[in-house]
Design brief:
By secondary structure, the protein is α+β, with helices and mostly antiparallel strands. The protein contains seven helices and nine strands; from the N terminus they run H-H-E-E-H-E-E-E-H-E-H-H-E-E-H-E. It has one domain (14-254): Heat Shock Protein 90. The chain has a nine-stranded mixed beta sheet, covered by helices on one side. Bound molecules: adenosine-5'-triphosphate (ATP) and magnesium ion. Residues 12-249 form the Sacsin/Nov domain.
């Protein structure tokens, strides 16, 4: 016999929701622009994109199913750090905590999810934490639909040697997954054919060549991207080839005439945007942007 009152209600299937977001969300450089915009909102000053061609060892990872995500990836670094609010915000789709904060560009709480065009398992290191998302709930160990990801404080709970390979791809841009990281490093392992076959988010395969093409498109638009930012002064695009110790620069764009006066003007905008409307003072200034 059934109980009088059963648990029942409307639920959202996460991968279906992400699929829906991707349908309404263009592929291409907008994916990169969403990352830049979030970094700008986090008051970062520099963003670096890096195409990592490496395939890292995969024996000491969280689960056998995670081995498939040690291959080529898009990395995105910025020098902002996630606040508690940011961690909360990124885990709640469509409920941006920025809406009530003036001066933030983000509004809808979906932009980050454009990244699911190219990966099924996005992850990032920020401050003391490593976060891994697994919307399918089938790659990470002991995972549930209620919490489809993992977050570890690696300063308080040192990553075990048994997870050495899991941490290997993040040893870049000053990150060591052991001590506090004064920045944020995203890693988006590119969706392979095998992963696309098993994905209910997207059937799109991404290769290092497709990211390279994306970088070429960004090169055409990067000045315009930089023009509309508040805090970011420089965007660098790099690649890390197998066997290389350091990533090599492909191109970069930065505010070239970053004199104190210009920076103050920019800071003024940043400040003004977060001040009450009647205090807003708009200045005029010229930005020289150089692509190297
Ligand atoms: N680089 C970052 N540094 C700090 N927090 C970040 C960063 N990237 C994302 N976040 C957090 O993740 C949240 C989700 O980002 P997302 O882009 O999906 O939403 P949003 O920026 O609030 O709104 P929108 O959909 O309009 O972009 C952000 O609100 C922010 O709190
Ligand atoms: Mg955003």
């Amino acid at each position: 016999m059934e109980h009088a009152w059963q648990d029942f209600g409307q639920k959202v299937d996460l991968t279906a929701r992400l699929r829906e977001i991707l349908i309404n969300y263009p592929e291409g450089t907008s994916i990169l622009k969403e990352i830049v915009q979030n970094a700008d909102d986090a008051k970062a000053t520099i963003v670096k994109f890096c195409l990592d061609y490496n395939t890292y060892p995969a024996d000491a990872v969280l689960s056998p199913a995670m081995r498939a995500f040690q291959g080529p990836a898009l990395l995105a670094f910025n020098d902002g750090v996630f606040s508690e609010k940011d961690f909360e915000s990124i885990s709640r789709i469509g409920d941006s905590k920025k809406r009530e904060q003036l001066g933030k560009t983000g509004r809808f709480g979906v932009g980050f999810n454009a990244i699911y065009h190219l990966t099924d398992v996005p992850s990032f290191v920020s401050g003391e934490h490593l976060v891994i998302f697994d919307p399918h709930c089938k790659h990470l160990p002991a995972i549930s639909a209620a919490n489809p990801g993992k977050k570890i404080n690696f300063v308080q709970h040192a990553l075990q040697p048994s997870l050495a390979h899991q941490a290997a791809p993040y040893q870049l841009f000053g990150c060591n997954t052991a001590s506090y990281y004064p920045g944020t490093l995203f890693r988006f392992p590119l969706r392979t054919q095998a992963q696309a076959d098993g994905s209910t988010i997207s059937k799109q395969v991404y290769t290092p060549e497709s990211i390279s093409a994306l970088f070429d498109d960004l090169r055409q638009e990067v000045q315009l991207v930089l023009l509309f930012l508040k805090s970011i002064r420089s965007i660098e695009v790099l690649q890390l080839l197998p066997g290389q110790a350091q990533p090599q620069l492909l191109f970069s764009c930065s505010v070239a005439n970053a004199t104190e006066a210009v920076l103050q003007q920019r800071a003024l905008f940043l400040h003004a945007a977060s001040a009450p409307a009647d205090e807003v003072v708009a200045g005029t200034y010229r930005l020289d942007m150089a692509i190297r």
